[in-house]
Amino acid sequence: MTRQTQGTAANGTYHHQLHNNTRMTNGIIIVDHGSRREESNRMLEEIATLFARRFEHKYPIVEPAHMELAEPSIATAYARCVKRGAQRVIICPFFLGPGKHWTEDIPRLAAQAARQHPHTTYHVTMTLGIDELMLDLLDKRVSFCIEHRFDCDACRGTIRQGGVAPQ
């Protein structure tokens, strides 16, 4: 049984089909802004690879995407998910807060990509947001900086990076 549902997206109205009593194959797209710095783009690819490995039984189809400035785009990643068998694509913004990219740009780009694959549905998740895990990560970063006496290659503004030594 299929029923039509309708909801309001940040940039207008969207429609999708809910298939009762059937399991749909999910494709996951982890999307960031994209950068002119290749190092930043490779980081998202590594995140997507690690996520895919950790959750391979739960999410067998995972693709990275960049909203702009670099490839793969959301459209390219969407097409890859569909080619790998996805019927529903879940787009996960790799952003901290719900800014314009989440409210407008990503839904618009996702809708454009989905139009090329009318037999699929898509959903955009919430941003990373506020979570206990984020607090633990912040603590980890601050502790590392303190333990290395503010003089490490991984930190910015350090003596090695042209910063000022702490007093």
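Above is the first protein from milestone M3; the second protein from the same milestone is given next.
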Amino acid sequence: MFVKGSLFRMLVVAALLLVTAAAATVAARAQLKPETIDLEAEPIDIAARPIATFDKGNASKTRFGRLEWRGGLVLTSPSENFGGWSGLAVDPDGRGFVAVSDAGTWLTGQIAYDGTRPSGIKFAKLGPLQSLGAKNLKKNRDRDAEAVVIVDGTTAQGSMLISFEQNQRIGRFDIDGRGVSPPRGYLEMPAELQNKKRGDGLEAMTVIKGGLLKGSVIGIAEHFLDSVGRHTGWIWVKGKPQKFHLTDIGGFNITDTASLPDGTLLILERRFRWLEGVKMRLRAIAAAELKPGAVLTGEILIEADLGQEIDNMEALAIHQGPRGETILTMISDDNFNGFLQKTILLQFTLLAEGQAAAR
């Protein structure tokens, strides 16, 4: 005969066993990233299921902090190489895009729209990231791409930077209709990043688009904390990385960053706990505050959890809409774990300060 305390303990044990089983599933599947050593660039099919509302409990809600919901998609593909997207750049027209994965692949294509809502992906093409010698990347530590930014031109014809975790580096690449070229060279990297293990290394990277540091590269580690628990980042000034810090708020990790035209830096963050699931946050750092040696906190623009349509949101891109509005595009990294995770693309409009409260 069970008493209430015994029943409660059994339920707790059962819950812990389920969590452990789920963790084991994730760990096992995380080891199943597709090999890309023989991969060649090729078109792929991508199916898109619309996400009608961002808030699961309130379909009429469209404003979340300083963001206004535009629409989203759940993306799937029969290609075994589709997934793991951790970096994203979008053309000024909001259509052309390039994404990179931590399995060492790139994805190009166009976002289709139904009015202002994203409705699908067209002209998708997937291929391997390569070494200086134009060889496909083989080792997992070499192919862990985490961020991408276009520095000149567009995805049709341009140049860009791609950053990698584990074997820490930021490479210069070209892009055109054929896809992504082998790297043309690499930036000088901070000494502190040498021998950093996965999860501690470079995760977020962009180029500042305005202000006194216009044209400078910014990089932030995923979870590299200093002696007082602050995140660590670097600004490349005249080609040399110089350190700054970002206040940790609530144990979130850094996943990506992107610059507004005036040099304001948006920082995408994620937190995962087995008993609460995944959370997402976006912060804004004013351009005037960003400098070597700074300790930054910024403004929280949005926080979301499993009450909203999020997953492991890893990538952030920014473009301007036809009316001058600032549009944010985010994509999730499913860790090639279709059993528990999804590839989600989300779009929001960034509202001006005070605009969200006024509406």
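Note on the second protein: Confidence is low (pLDDT under 50) at residues 1-30.
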